[in-house]
Specification:
single chain; alpha/beta; six-stranded parallel beta sheet; 6 strands; hydrolase activity; Cysteine hydrolase family protein; Isochorismatase-like_sf; Isochorismatase-like_hydrls; Isochorismatase-like_dom
Length: about 230
């Protein structure tokens, strides 16, 4: 089964196979979303006080295994290939401008998983070292899920002449999905690379890919994209 028939929701079960996306290097950009230190660093399991905390820790282990074993290496490889061809690589990260987070959006002030206080200059808010921007690669900071609505990314992409955005990062069902939907609503062509993204659970990851595929984006794997773009290993 190819990317053209995988990850289909009920809505698109009988739809014809999509055409190959237009992937002109001059008008295509890679967007790495929220692969930040805060999400990848973990405490020592033995330091956790309660069984509930240890069980929750264990519940996150498959995510960390996927990130370190698949997602981060795949994104790093893509960055190498894009950079070798001079294709734009951009980054979006969650970071507030103030130390107390008073500029955060409401969703990042509510209790729970998305209650984030990530001042822009602190270690926790930076991209993980393996995916750090180089040279003059553009980084936008946001206190929203969507990298488009929370920043000037729309203007940046327009100024760069970008028409197709390849989205990778975390979390598939949150900031990746919100960004993809915003880009699609602004009439950008969007590609999501399923083996360069992750959600808290594989089930959430898979379900979200089905939801956004074919209406907001084309979902494929990294090797599908590199083949379509003829991105040889430099």
């Amino acid at each position: 089964m190819s990317w053209k028939t995988e990850n289909r929701s009920f809505y698109y079960a009988l739809a014809p196979e999509p055409d190959d996306p237009v992937l002109d290097p001059a008008t295509t950009a890679l967007l790495v979303i929220d692969v930040q230190n805060t999400y990848l660093e973990r405490p020592d399991r033995a330091s956790l006080a309660s069984e509930a905390e240890r069980a929750h820790y264990d519940g996150w282990t498959p995510f960390h295994e996927r990130m370190h074993g698949t997602v981060i290496p795949n994104i790093a490889d893509l960055l190498t290939r894009f950079r070798a061809r001079g294709i734009e690589c951009l980054f979006a990260r969650i970071a507030c401008q103030t130390t107390d987070g008073r500029d955060r959006s409401l969703s990042q002030k509510k209790p729970g998983f998305n209650n984030l206080l990530l001042p822009k200059d602190e270690h926790a808010s930076q991209m993980v070292p393996a995916l750090a921007p180089v040279g003059d690669e553009i980084v936008v900071t946001k206190t929203t899920d969507s990298a488009l609505t929370g920043t000037n990314l729309r203007l940046i992409l327009a100024n760069l002449g970008i028409r197709t955005v390849v989205c990778v990062g975390i979390f598939t069902d949150q900031c990746v999905s919100s960004t993809v939907r915003s880009l699609a609503d602004e009439s950008f062509d969007v590609v999501v690379l399923e083996d360069c993204c992750a959600a808290a659970t594989d089930d959430l990851h898979r379900r979200e890919l089905e939801i956004i595929n074919m209406i907001y984006c084309n979902v494929m794997r990294a090797n599908d994209l590199t083949s379509l773009m003829n991105l040889q290993v430099p």
